Amino acid sequence: MSGEKTLIRDGLVVTMDADRRVVSRGAVMVEGDRIAAVGGVDDVLRYGKPDRVVEARDSIVMPGLICAHTHLYGIALRGAALNIKPPSDFLQILQRVWWPLDEKLNNDDAYATALAACMEFALSGTTAFADTYSAPNGIEGSLDRIAEAVNKVGIRGIISFEATERRSEEEGRRGLEENIRFLKRGDRGRAIGMISLHASFTISDDLIRAGVEAAEKYKAPLTIHVSEGPNDVYHNIERYGKRTVERLRDVGLLSERAVLAHCVHLNVEEIRILGETKTNVAHNPMSNMLNAVGVQPLPEMLANGVNVSLGNDGYVFDMFENMRSCFLLHRVARRDPGVISAQKVVEMATIDAARAYGLRELGSLEPGKKADIIIIRPKILATPLTGSPYNYIVNGIKGGDVTHVFVDGELIAENQRLLKVAQEEAQKEVLGIIGRLWERLGSSPLEAVEPLKLR
C-alpha cells in the first residue's frame, strides 16, 4: 500500500465487518485507494502520520452504500406528465410508460440520465450501484456514454444493457453483444461491466443460456428481473409448465453469480431453490410500492439463507429512504414490529450488496479493502450517537446528512458539493438533453394537467 495518507478521526465508526464492530471515538486511516487501519484513534495513529486529517466528531463513519439494482434512466420521468391512458396494473405500466420511453432514448439521453442519477447517488452517500439500461434504438455504444458519466462524477458503477427479445431475436442478440463489447473494453475507469437480461417473459431459453455463457466466460455478474408482477409467473406456467425460478434453474441461470431483481411473486419452493443454489436477490421496496406489485417475501428468503440486497429500481436515489422503506414495509405487511432488524437493512445496503456482485473489496471498513467511505453528520443532533447506530441510520438519517464521500480514497463530495464535476454546468447540460427527450415523448404541458381541486 502506498500513497497519500488520510486520517478520518473521532467519529462513530460502523465497520460492517464480520463482527459488526462499532468503534466509539473511532478512526480510519486511508492510504492511497485502500483502508490501512480501523480502530480507536490512538491505535490508528500508530500506523503513521497522516498527510490529511478529516474531523468526524459527532458524525457516523461507515462504508459507502451500494444500490444493488437501479435504472439510472428512470430519473428522466421524475415529474413528467405523459399523454397516456392511466395504467391499471404493472404490465400496463411497462407497456404505456417504460417501453415507450425506451424507444425514444438515444446515447445522449443515456449519458444525461446517468450523470444526473450519479450526482444524486454520490451526494446522498451511495458510492456504488448496479444499473441496467434499455434503449432498442440506441444500443451500440450506450454503455460507453454511461461509463463517461460514472467516471465524471467519480462514483463506482456496475453497468449493463438490458437484453430483450420483446421486439425481435435480433434485438436480444445486439443487447447481449453490447454487454460483451463493454466487458472486453480496456480502460473502463470505475465503470464495471455485467450481463443483463430483461425478464423471463421477454426472452427465450436460448438467450438466457447465451447470457449465462457470457457471464461465466468474462467472470461477470448476471442480472435479470424475476416475478416482479404476476404476469411473469403466468407466462412461464402457460408456456413452459413451470414457475419462473424453476425455469431459470432448469436453463442454468441460478448461481452465486446471478442477481435476481424483485422476486415478489415467489412460492415456498422457489425460495428454497434460491437458497439451495446460493442465488442473490435485489429487493426494491419503494418501486414495488410505486408499481403496486406486492410485497417481497423477505423474511422467508432470509430464513432460507438467501442473500438479499437493496436496490431502488430507478425510483428514489437516496438509499437512506430506501432503507427506511424496507424497514417499515415489512413491519406493516406482517403486522410484526420485529420482522426485520435495522441492522439487517443496513447490511442489505452495504456488505450483502457487495457480496451479491462479488465485490469482495467493498461493503465494509476493514484493512486492505477499497476506501469507499461516507461520513454522516445529522443536521440536528437530537440524541447522542451512543445508542444503536443501526437504528439511528435507518430511522434518523437522510441523504442530505452526508458530509463526505470517498471512492477509492478520493474525496468526490464534501458538504453536499461534488468535487470532480461542476454541478451547475452539469445540471444545465442534463436539463437541456432531458427537455428534448420530453418533447419527443409528448409530455403534457403544465396547463394540460388537471388542476388540484381543493374542497
Can you put this structure into words, describing what you see?
This protein is α/β, with parallel strands linked by helices and 455 residues long. It folds into two domains: 113 residues, Urease, subunit C, domain 1; 292 residues, Alpha-Beta Barrel (TIM Barrel), CATH 3.20.20.140. The protein has 16 helices and 18 strands. Strands 1, 2, 3, 4, 5, 15, 16, 17 and 18 form a nine-stranded mixed sheet that branches. Strands 6, 7, 8, 9, 10, 11, 12, 13 and 14 form a nine-stranded parallel sheet that branches. Helix 3 packs across helix 16, helix 8 runs parallel beside helix 9 and helix 12 packs across helix 13. The protein is globular, with a radius of gyration of 22 Å. The C terminus is likely disordered.
Strand and helix map with partners:
Elements: E1 5-14, E2 22-31, E3 34-40, H1 41-45, E4 52-55, E5 60-63, E6 65-70, H2 90-104, H3 107-123, E7 126-133, H4 142-153, E8 156-163, H5 169-184, E9 191-193, E10 195-199, H6 205-217, E11 222-226, H7 230-240, H8 244-250, E12 258-262, H9 268-277, E13 280-283, H10 285-290, H11 298-303, E14 308-310, H12 319-334, H13 342-348, H14 351-356, E15 373-376, H15 389-396, E16 402-407, E17 410-414, E18 417-418, H16 423-441
Parallel strand pairs: 1-4, 1-5, 6-7, 7-8, 8-9, 8-10, 10-11, 11-12, 12-13, 13-14
Antiparallel strand pairs: 1-2, 2-3, 5-15, 15-16, 16-17, 17-18
Helix pairs in contact: 3-4, 3-16, 5-6, 8-9, 12-13, 13-15
